[in-house]
Amino acid sequence: MSSTLESAQVAAAAARLGRTLNDEQARLLSVYLGLLVKWNTRMNLVGPSTWLEILDTLIQDSWHLSDLLHTVEPQPGQTLDLGAGAGLPGIPLRVFWQAGEYYLVEPRQKRALFMEQAAAHMKLPRTKVICARMEALPPARREADLIVSRAFMPWKKLLAEVRGYLAPQGRVLVMSNETSDETVEGYALEQVRDYTVVGKKRYFRLFILGGHDF
Predict the structure, then answer these.
(1) How many domains is the chain partitioned into structurally?
(2) How far apart are CA 58 and CA 105, in angstroms?
(3) Structural domain contains residue 146
(4) pTM of the prediction?
């Protein structure tokens, strides 16, 4: 199958899900999906086995997240994606949202290698992989304006653990299948956004360290 046809198929599948992709977005997603399916046969990176299943169940998170992040002011200068795994949501997110420096943090070497290969093939701007545990990050990576977490750890524990990795008024984006108005001491819940994937609600909760100065 040619890359042009694959891009067209990705664009058509996204359109059925309500998302219009431009040619470059379709091309980049086709590269990522092709690599992920290939590596997944050897490493079991994700549960779904076909590119269409991955698009339906996992990639949608990234374009919905990009819509939310485009509304954030000021835009983050440095983002940490903790426990990045196979690069979801981070790598496809960078197809749609490219503000600042984005660091995919993953301690497992094979997964980090996959992400490095994907980011290199896609030529994603300002998107880097760090193969390390969060606790081993250098001081320069402990001043994040935004931390993204899919399922790195329970959200209350996450907020408590990452205080020392955030810049003043840094934000933490939590992805989950449930929502709540709860927060953790020292944070304000800035925004909640829901969206639907395969008929089920999912939620983004955006917390800000210290809240806003009014």
Answers:
(1) 1
(2) 19
(3) yes
(4) 0.92
